[in-house]
Design brief:
The chain is α/β, with parallel strands linked by helices. About 40% of the residues lie in helices and about 35% in strands. A five-stranded mixed sheet has the order 1-2-3-4-5.
Length: about 120
């Protein structure tokens, strides 16, 4: 059975902000890992989840679907979701799928953290 080619790391630059670093591939195989990372990042005080894509190698349509699932979970928890470190290609994908209307896109982590504060 194919396995996820994704690793995640959770960082908390502020009490209400969590960063999920994504490294590797965001595909359908990464669902459990991505959901576990979200659950770990999303404690009761987290108001903003920042997805850091700076070490992303690949994301397909199933991966986009997982982001939509994460977004729905975050909205149910009254959390904002931001993205940083996207290449121009993935920024265009976010625009085409209109994800950019629900997930704030920032060029770098510092800008995303500042916007979350």
């Amino acid at each position: 059975m194919p396995e996820a080619k994704l690793t995640t790391a959770i960082r908390k630059p502020a009490e209400s902000v969590a960063i999920i670093d994504l490294e590797g591939e965001v595909t359908g195989f990464a669902e459990q890992m991505l959901m576990d990372a979200y659950n770990q990042a999303s404690n009761g005080k987290t108001r903003t989840i920042i997805l850091n894509f700076s070490r992303l190698d690949y994301m397909n349509s199933s991966g986009i679907g997982l982001l939509v699932t994460l977004l729905i979970r975050a909205q149910r928890q009254k959390q904002s979701m931001f993205a940083c470190g996207l290449t121009e290609h993935y920024v265009q994908i976010f625009e085409l799928t209109r994800l950019n209307e629900a997930i704030g896109i920032f060029p770098g982590e510092a800008e995303a953290v500042a916007a979350a504060a």
